[in-house]
Specification:
2 helices, 5-stranded mixed beta sheet, 18% helix, 2 domains, binds zinc ion
Length: 183
């Protein structure tokens, strides 16, 4: 069995009055590796970026295991852990994954037999992604052209972020202003 750390937490003061953040932890139902820490919650928000689907709340149990992320969702924690466990079993019993990149352009893929998601499966060459300037294989950045008919890829050296999207501009207020005020 393993421990599942829940997203619910409370602050407990120790004898000296120092506050500590303490998460609720429960025992897993299934024999995940003993040293594995899973995480879960009964009211996790899932923000869906696909405009045809609504965001929702769900119970969930999830973990990183063997280079992949496994997650189950359900009405209760038990149901969520059962789903995650069945995904994990399907992965363990899949003798030879058949990887499919689908819409992933970062090397990640999904096995069409067991549904396992894994990162770093395909190289940029496997995916036929070459910088449109210098032709080196890259996953650094891509731009959609012609309504998704074609993609343009850029390596780190040849990708120029639009001015208003630089990290400095996005984080400038948050990161730098507290220090500037001290001047
Ligand atoms: Zn598989
Ligand atoms: Zn390039």
């Amino acid at each position: 069995m393993a421990k599942i750390r829940l997203s619910s937490s409370k602050i407990i003061e120790d004898a000296s009055g120092t506050p500590h953040l303490v998460y609720d932890v429960i025992e897993s139902l299934h024999p995940w590796s003993e040293h594995k820490l899973l995480q879960g919650g009964i009211n996790g928000a899932v923000l869906v970026t696909d405009p045809t689907r609504a965001s929702y709340r769900t119970a969930f149990v999830e973990t990183f295991i063997d280079n992949t992320f496994i997650r189950g969702e359900g009405n209760t924690l038990e149901e969520a852990e059962n789903k995650a466990w069945h995904k994990y079993q399907a992965r363990m019993n899949c003798e030879q994954h058949e990887w499919e990149a689908g819409t992933y352009k970062n090397g990640a893929a999904i096995c069409r037999k067991c549904g396992t998601f894994e990162r770093h499966v395909f190289s940029a060459e496997d995916l036929n992604q070459y910088c449109s300037v210098c032709r080196v294989p890259t996953y650094y950045h891509f731009e959609v052209q012609d309504n998704g008919e074609t993609y343009l890829f850029f390596c780190e050296e040849h990708y120029t972020a639009p001015d208003d999207l630089t990290i400095e501009n996005l984080l400038g207020e948050v990161v730098f202003s507290p220090f500037e005020k001290k001047k």
